[in-house]
């Protein structure tokens, strides 16, 4: 494994979207602190990590009401106490309902409003800076789902199509890049963590491991880790793109921040992307039953009948 680039990079600020929201050029994903990647981590350690991130200049903090569910927002809410809220940009998400013991994707106004109010209570804030639609409710026109209430910006997570992209460009406050079809970010950051996913099934993993070895070799040439190289690739997508890597360890956080100092030439970008083109990566990120950007078409606005 390549050595890590030194943690000397300053965290610049950037504009996210068109409504004036300014965030740190790299965020902190809080999901793994409470859910999905093993048992919840000790609360005091995670609060300390969040405070360390803010002190380092990483002020864009990302969570969701489905992480836990709810426990990750409660954790972040505790970390925001004592004057921290005024120093950060808080992003959370809605759309995955767990009511009555069943999982349902919802984007109707009544649900979104209630979900937002619940997030505000758990976070202990009077507004959030960025509110994402975590998954698309295909029963509700995207225009209906969009709200501008108790938030400073709105965005979409892990879904896209031509019409929704147009709506985003016209109405939305900001979009954080969480995924890329080439798979390089997902593979190098999540290697070995999601064995039940298609990309990590034995036959696919063997092929994808070859990609990782090529990425690792480039990282060694660049004097950084594969994860830092992946983050650097995201940063080089444009000045309006903000990755939000998650971690539960201060050491890993520091390495992630150091990715800001990794520079890639156009030739290196082309080489890196060639390793993991869509026809090379084996297996999808999620099983076909999971709703993603590949399946997110919504009805026309004219079809909606207000309740």
From TrEMBL:
Belongs to the aldo/keto reductase family. This is NADP-dependent oxidoreductase domain-containing protein. It comes from the Eukaryota. SUPFAM superfamilies: NAD(P)-linked oxidoreductase. Keywords: NADP, Oxidoreductase. GO terms for cellular component: cytoplasm. One of its GO terms (molecular function) is oxidoreductase activity. The keyword Zinc does not apply. InterPro entries: Aldo-Keto_reductase, NAD(P)_OxRdtase_dom_sf, NADP_OxRdtase_dom. Pfam families: Aldo_ket_red. Residues 30-145, 195-274 form the NADP-dependent oxidoreductase domain.
């Amino acid at each position: 494994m390549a050595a890590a680039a030194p943690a000397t990079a300053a965290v610049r600020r950037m504009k996210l979207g068109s409504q004036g929201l300014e965030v740190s050029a790299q965020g902190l994903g809080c999901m793994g602190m409470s859910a999905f990647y093993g048992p919840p981590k000790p609360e005091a350690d995670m609060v300390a990590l969040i405070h360390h991130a803010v002190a380092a200049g990483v002020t864009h903090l990302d969570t969701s009401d489905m992480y836990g569910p709810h426990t990750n927002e409660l954790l972040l809410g505790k970390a925001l106490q004592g004057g921290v809220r005024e120093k950060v940009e808080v992003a959370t998400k809605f759309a995955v309902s767990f009511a009555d013991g069943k999982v349902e994707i919802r984007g109707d106004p009544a649900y979104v409003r209630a979900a937002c109010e619940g997030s505000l209570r758990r976070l202990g804030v009077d507004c959030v800076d960025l509110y994402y639609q975590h998954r698309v409710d295909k029963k509700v026109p995207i225009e209906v789902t969009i709200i501008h209430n108790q938030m400073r910006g709105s965005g979409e997570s892990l879904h896209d199509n031509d019409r929704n992209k147009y709506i985003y460009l016209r109405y939305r406050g900001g979009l954080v890049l969480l995924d890329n079809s080439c798979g390089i970010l997902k593979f190098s950051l999540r290697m070995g963590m999601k064995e039940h996913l298609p990309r990590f099934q034995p036959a696919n993993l063997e092929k994808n491991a070859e990609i990782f070895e090529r990425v690792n070799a480039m990282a060694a040439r660049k004097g950084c880790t594969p994860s830092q190289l992946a983050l650097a690739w995201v940063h080089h997508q444009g000045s309006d793109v903000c990755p939000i890597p998650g971690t539960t360890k201060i050491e890993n956080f520091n390495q992630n921040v150091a990715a800001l100092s990794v520079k890639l030439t156009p030739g290196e970008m082309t080489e890196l992307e060639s390793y993991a083109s869509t026809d090379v990566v084996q297996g999808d990120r999620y099983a076909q039953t999971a709703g993603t950007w590949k399946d997110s078409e919504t009805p026309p606005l004219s079809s909606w009948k207000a309740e």
